[in-house]
Design goal:
By secondary structure, the protein is an alpha/beta fold. The chain contains 8 helices and 10 strands. The chain is about 30% helix and about 25% strand. The structure holds adenosine-5'-triphosphate.
Length: about 280
């Protein structure tokens, strides 16, 4: 079961950011190109992408709609096979989905006919073959409680709000304890308040796991990327999208949503990301 630590023990200085670079590599994307074959020929979505993500790192992928963020994520999850190049996750070449990589989609992908509890239990049951029923129920209870859904555990997904469904999807992904968590615009459809509290929940869960989980997330939201990530990968527009720039977020943790917006480093990276994403327009335009 998860080792609980006091969040204050996890306070770090800006210099600690650089320690990440000494960690082992969790995900190694090597010269990945993805081309989809269709009736009108081949469409190259992403081209020659290389990216290394360290263990325990939080990386945000950002870029305009259709630039290939989900495609790249899906090469890590194993749901898309690169046309050339390869992805190595936890030291193994990715050949398909696996329990070491949990994914949360924007549309939650919960089974509508199963309760909150069952949705999580099914996933736990399919991954932890060696655990007995009592142990599996304990895991489910633990993660439902962690996302504050215990009073709602018998409800069906259709009886939940968007934010609650999202918490179920996150609890399910954490319950199977993947070392790599892939979040594809997980908070995109949420209102600002729910989104803000989900950011805190996610970081709490990451802290509770001693910051050992590697998280890659797709987002359109610059503030979200800066608040959560250690680095932000900005993609060029497609077709044949490449990485435009990797921006390090050298802000100490824990980060306070309100305070960091006044931090000169926050202002600098915010400006940089805005220019990278909207460099065609100036304020006069
Ligand atoms: N299975 C597929 N077959 C053909 N083309 C595809 C397929 N999946 C994605 N594409 C194309 O690849 C490009 C990248 O799509 P992708 O979904 O990765 O973009 P995205 O950056 O995640 O977009 P958004 O931000 O809008 O979700 C798009 O032009 C899309 O139409």
């Amino acid at each position: 079961m998860t080792n609980i630590v006091n969040p204050s023990q996890l306070a770090d200085s800006a210099n600690d950011f650089h320690k990440i670079n000494n960690r082992e590599t969790a995900i190694d994307i090597k010269d990945v190109t993805v081309a989809f074959k269709g009736s009108k020929g081949t469409f190259t979505a992403v081209k020659d992408i290389s990216l290394e993500v360290k263990k325990g790192e939080i990386v945000a992928l950002i870029g305009h709609s259709g630039c290939g963020k989900s495609t790249l994520m899906n090469t890590i999850s194993g749901m898309v096979t690169p046309s050339s190049g390869e992805v190595i996750a936890n030291g193994n070449i990715v050949k398909g989905p696996g329990p070491d990589r949990g994914i949360v989609f924007q549309n939650y992908s919960l089974l509508p006919w199963m309760s909150v509890y069952k949705n999580i239990y099914e996933a736990v049951d399919s991954v932890f073959k060696d655990k007995n029923s009592k142990e599996k129920h304990e895991i489910v209870d633990h993660y439902i409680q962690m996302v504050n859904l215990t009073p709602h555990k018998d409800k069906l997904p259709g009886q939940l709000s968007g934010g609650m469904k999202q918490r179920v999807a996150i609890a399910r992904a954490f319950a199977i304890n993947p070392s790599i968590l892939l979040l594809d615009e997980p908070f995109g459809a949420l209102d600002a308040l729910t989104k803000g509290s989900m950011h805190i929940e996610l970081l709490k869960l990451w802290n509770l796991d001693n910051r050992n989980k590697t998280i890659v997330m797709v987002t359109h939201d610059i503030e979200e990327a800066i608040f959560l990530a250690d680095k932000v990968v900005v993609m060029n527009n497609g077709p044949a999208a490449t990485i435009k720039k990797i921006v390090d977020i050298n802000l100490p943790r824990p980060r306070n949503k309100k305070d960091i917006t006044h931090d000169p480093e926050y202002i600098r990276v915010h400006d940089e990301l805005l220019s990278l994403l909207f460099d065609k327009f100036s304020i006069e335009d």
